[in-house]
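Can't paste images in this forum, so I'm doing it all in text. The chain is below; anyone willing to post the predicted structure tokens underneath?
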Amino acid sequence: MKLETFNHTTSAGWSVATLPPLDSERTLVIMFGAPDLDPGPIHEIARAYPSSHIVGCSTAGEILGTALYDDSLSVGIVQFEHTRVATAIAPVGSADESYATGEALAQRLDDPQLCGILVLSDGALVNGSELVRGLNAALPTSVVVTGGLAGDGTRMERTWVVKDGAPQGGFVSAVGLYGERVRIGHGSKGGWDIFGPERLVTRSEGNILYELDERPALQLYKEYLGDRASGLPSAAFFFPLALRADSSDQKSIVRTILALDEENQSMTFAGDIPQGYLVQLMRANFDRLVDGAADAAAMTQERQQQTAPVLSIAVSCVGRRLVLGEGSEEELEATLDGLPEGTQQIGFYSYGEISPYGIGHCDLHNQTMTLTTISEE
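Text version of the structure:
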């Protein structure tokens, strides 16, 4: 397996003298770019790798190594020796189509030799929870599914994925990796502090939460925030919710608040909030968030020991970037510190992260650092 990572910025151009000569039918090209990026560099990559499988999406910040960029294009190119690669792409016109889109993509890629799927989705039109449900419905638990929802900075208006060598909105793309020699690791951790009592979701519809313990959800949320409620809606990034099915469920998933409705006293989240589930308020802790990124790397290594060359794909939430601010690169450093020496990393800040919580089927996460590592024996 051969691996190269590099980027393109408006001010400096390509960070490599020439684009690596790695084009082949067993080559995977992954790109993460700014939402308003000039498409020229993407077109250049498409022309340079006509036989390769090319995927990518827009971001709320591009990752290369331990550095965070805006207005750039981060690129990772893997030329496998033994692993077969296949790509699939499907339109998604509205959130209602998300489940069917996920199911259709999984069915197109499914095969007895399928080991893992990387999903990159439009982040503005899709319901991430339903997309994940559709993927899980058509795949065995042995297939590792990871990825994320494309970003649009902090605007949350329009996102894109790479289709036919160009950035286009309204699509979900997926790449499948096949064979006995490919090694795929994964890890996902948050690092948020939980406070306050758990509350029962007594009224919700999809990703809209109306009532907790039969009280208006937004009213209760503001009571807990106290004086900090004056900073809403932007302050909501600093106070997500932990979600689990019941008191015996050891799997707690983080949900980010996207919008508040004062009239209905409701909150809209980046993933579904099922009625009958339990939720608990969370708050940011800088050191714990960085530790969470390190824990994600440790989880990746525990599940899949790998040797160089290794590609790490880091998908972190835009909410984490807002909380960490100028310290965001510390969580990127923490991920690489926990991976094999010589690991090369690309990634992006997203509107939702896709990864198994532990083992088995994938989940939609918010406010986590999610890592996928790829290598070949």
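The longest strand covers residues 193-205. Residues 193-283 form one domain.
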